[in-house]
Amino acid sequence: MVDDTRPALRFGILGAARIAPAALIAPARRNPEVDVTAVAARDRARGERFAGKHGIGRVYDSYPALLADPDIDAVYIPLPNGLHGRWTRAALEAGKHVLCEKPFTADAAEAREIATLAARSGLVVMEAFHYRYHPLTKAAEEVVASGELGALRHVEATVCFPLPRFSDIRYDYDLAGGALMDAGCYAVHMARLLGGAEPDVVSAQAKLRDPRVDRAMLADLRFAAGHTGRVRSSMWSADLLRVAVTVTGERGRLRVLNPLLPHQGHLLSLRTDEHRLRRRFTRRTSYDYQLDAFADAVLRDLPVATGPSDSVATMTVIDAIYSAAGLPLRRPS
Question: Which among 45, 94, 161, 220 could disulfide-bond with 67, CB atoms 3.0 to 4.6 Å apart, if both were Cys?
Answer without folding.
Answer: 94
